[in-house]
Amino acid sequence: xxxxxxxxxxxxxxxxxxxxxxxxxxxxxxxxxxxxxxxxxxxxxxxxxxxxxxxxxxxxxxxxxxxxxxxxxxxxxxxxxxxxxxxxxxxxxxxxxxxxxxxxxxxxxxxxxxxxxxxxxxxxxxxxxxxxxxxxxxxxxxxxxxxxxxxxxxxxxxxxxxxxxxxxxxxxxxxxxxxxxxxxxxxxxxxxxxxxxxxxxxxxxxxxxxxxxxxxxxxxxxxxxxxxxxxxxxxxxxxxxxxxxxxxxxxxxxxxxxxxxxxxxxxxxxxxxxxxxxxxxxxxxxxxxxxxxxxxxxxxxxxxxxxxxxxxxxxxxxxxxxxxxxx
Length: 327
Ligand code: HEC
Ligand SMILES: [Cu+2]
Fold this sequence. Notes:
With 327 residues, the protein is α+β, with helices and mostly antiparallel strands. Helix content is 41%, strand content 20%.
């Protein structure tokens, strides 16, 4: 293939990619995202058609036969093509956009599950609200039941962040001192990646999240299991818990059922069950966990966790075994 051919192939592949990627507004998995995708396609195709018409008119105006050029250059062409046509098209599009949004509002019927998501530099605090029980604290990975509307109560503890999971819906800012509510629904089980969509300093680009949509029964079982105390059957795991508590991790992190109740960093009660660490930055493996604890700055420069290069390899082994057992 020639260099130009390769370049063209790369462009076509990149253009098609968003449709398959886990984070794409062109791969909708909910009604809200479907409306946005539909509007995008209509705008894209309409704009392409108009662009082609304009190019054709331009070519005719330059190269066309004399009578054609006279028509294109006439006052009538400017009045109809330059004023009436854009006014009508833009008004219709505005009306259609407003109608779609009205549709979105009408589709909102309670009751919904409520999950509070708070933007932090540079991760996501997640609280599942429960009737008559304390909220279940989580971080960075949000499990939801399929087919049920969820109200995300979006807040921020520091600067403005923006919550955006393109396959499920539009983005909404997280503003300090305010609660913005975003209602989303996943129609199919799956993993939908999201991203902070408002520059919030330092490692903003490494502030991603995942929404894991599972069947209702699975979700309920997972939520109910939050209250169960983790087993420390293995001696290594028990030793890991001692290290976790004595090293001072609990000043910033909480693990339900232990003295660790810190609120500065992500809740670690079920960190072993998450797919990623540090806001979808690192795969959740023992090696990555050890590397992140030893020096968080390597994987996530600017992260607000201090380095802990204090553990021997056996100690680190126990510590990662303990964290991995928290599910
Ligand atoms: C001064 C507060 C502080 C201390 C002490 C601290 N951490 Fe952290 N930790 C954080 C913050 C903040 C983050 C979030 C980093 C990010 O993703 O931007 C974090 C993230 C993590 C994560 C990733 C969690 C996730 O869900 O992605 C793990 C695991 C972790 N810390 C383990 C530890 C361990 C083990 C210790 C003790 C050896 C410790 N931390 C001590 C503040 C702290
Ligand atoms: Cu951000």
